[in-house]
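Input:
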Amino acid sequence: MSTLEEAFVRGDDAALKQVYDAHARLVYSYSRRSLNDERAKEVTQDVFVSAWKGRDKFNPARGSLPAWLMGITKNRLIDNVRAEQRHSSRRAASEPVDVGVEAETERIGDRMLVADALKTLPDRAQMVIKLAYFEGLSHQQITEKTDLPLGTVKSDIRRGLASIRRLVEVIDE
Amino acid sequence: MNNEFETDGVEDLEMLLTELEDGDFELAELPAGLWEDIEAEALAEVPSVPEGVRLADRNADSPEMFVYDADAVAAQTDSNTRSSTDSNVVSIDSKRFSARAMPALAIAAAAVVVAGMVGIVLSRSSDQSDILASAELAYDDSFDPLGADADATIVLVNDGGESLIKIDQSTLPDTASEAADLELWLIEPDADGGVADLVSLGLIDRDDPGSFEIPAGYDADTYFVVDISIEPRDGVETHSGRSILRGPLSDA
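Output:
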């Protein structure tokens, strides 16, 4: 557990501000993907207040703090999607409920968390991973394009993925 | 646990990486006032529920006001007429407290004299048959000294199918001189006796305390600790942290 996570769980007021500074833009931006700015602000406020009040439920052994915050945000956004669907189904009962919206909301949260974790990597590792996954280059092609040794490319990818996974993964109990 | 980000090993993460879009990297600027709103709501100083209303059983010799009575819970389980069909809903019966006013606390409270405090006593008779639960509110040393000589009896009544919180009897300090009001709250305590959540029922008219609706979405089974606080007229709607009286509802 990081020092900041420890301080947050302990209830240190300053830690709430630090956690907000570190992750509020991610939470807010995720909310903005499906809500207007006013509702996104409300959801962000709700997420941080809920997280603070329920901080004893945060278990660092099961996932990082940003993953936990994004999980809470995801639940709030899906609740919102469901509420809107209930609302619209009252107006037109024959319209089928769009389950795709819910899945997409979830997927966007996962992607944004991964993108956020990617940004924490050293520049070289970020570049190598982007070449491998966005441009679909093989390890060999990356070495030719960047003049990096093959071992470095493979190592950057392996260590980068492990580092991202530590930040995004939540282990089920 | 439904907060999880699930990755089935590296493959799922690799798939997500290939699906990333430019928009996934873009972070919006935070709206003005967001932190201030969070700070006001999350860090509002609410005194923790005093020792006396903690849920854990305690040493009978300690100067406590309320003792969690496990036997009463067991005895009530079958005869609970207010129980919900939803087993997740905890009723007041299962949080039954046996209230015992302990001399040590009473003496401590009486010894504190607050200059300028003018208490008034109001008595309101409620039809006993309508009373579902009641709470004797008491002052605690950690509270605002203005409440040292205050007391109040709160009842939860069934008024034509609607649950109302009524101030049955009260001796409350006059806060008009310091441009403050008295506000009535229901608190959901956490397992450690802290405040998990709370909701305002409204400002108390000292001359006519009357009754209060419980806001939609809240119930006295979960929010079963009653609190009265001093609220400066400063436009801040969160709890000031200046409680004067508090006590748990226990069924009548």
